[in-house]
Amino acid sequence: MAGHSHWANIAHKKSVIDNKRGKLWSKLSKALIVAAKEGGGDPATNLKLRYAITDAKAGNMPKDTIERSIKKGTGELEGGNLEQVLYEGYGPAGVAVLCEIFTDNRNRTAPEVRKIFEVAGGKLGATGCVAWMFDRKTLVRVAKDKIGEDALMELAIEAGADDVRTEGDVFEVIAEPDAFATVCAALEAANVPTEGSEITRIPKDTVDIGSDDARRVLKMMTALDDHDDVQSVSANFNIPDDVMAELADA
């Protein structure tokens, strides 16, 4: 299972627990703020905001909380001064890791993220140290029971996607970043529900890791994902099926 896809599935399953802890709402709120800040507060003309709202509703965020987050992004309320930062580094076994950060205080966030890397035996690196190992792509996840693979492939390719691949119990639609709007709109028009849509970073190549390293990497990824200012995490690890089976039996 490849780095981003594998972690995306784990993170999706974690979201139910995170929601109970309030962590998911924090991340969803920041996504709303940034989307509104970038493209305005009208979801009819700001597709990124529309899908951020869809994700927020899927996370059971109350309507008034969604509206407050949007107003923070447009400047109508205070609290929308978020900065987007990309932190790069290496995890156990030399795994390359990228963290997309939404923060209102770099001086607080940077040392906290650095400590997570160091505790795991990794190291936070300089700007550009691993970003070249990843491609920025649109990634849309669709449950397998919502549409057949051939039908999804035809729909996605016509909308400008590059590929559709299988990852666990979902299909992943991959496209260039500038195709995000057309791909998402095509799925919406065809009444195909999604389990998440984002512009993210996908590794060009992956490195296989064994069970001991896999445990350490997944522990670090979980700690990063649990940090309030970390919006998303990508990495270039691959856990072979036999190692996954060993972890599951442990």
TrEMBL record:
PANTHER family: TRANSCRIPTIONAL REGULATORY PROTEIN YEBC-RELATED (PTHR12532:SF6), TRANSLATIONAL ACTIVATOR OF CYTOCHROME C OXIDASE 1 (PTHR12532). GO terms for biological process: regulation of DNA-templated transcription. Pfam families: TACO1_YebC_N (PF20772), Transcrip_reg (PF01709). Gene3D superfamilies: 1.10.10.200, 3.30.70.980. It is found in: Cytoplasm. NCBIfam families: PRK00110.1, PRK12378.1, YebC/PmpR family DNA-binding transcriptional regulator. Residues 83-237 form the TACO1/YebC-like second and third domain. This is Probable transcriptional regulatory protein I41_46050. Signal peptide: none annotated. Residues 5-76 form the TACO1/YebC-like N-terminal domain. It comes from the Bacteria. Keywords: Cytoplasm, DNA-binding, Transcription, Transcription regulation. GO terms for molecular function: DNA binding. One of its GO terms (cellular component) is cytosol. Belongs to the TACO1 family.
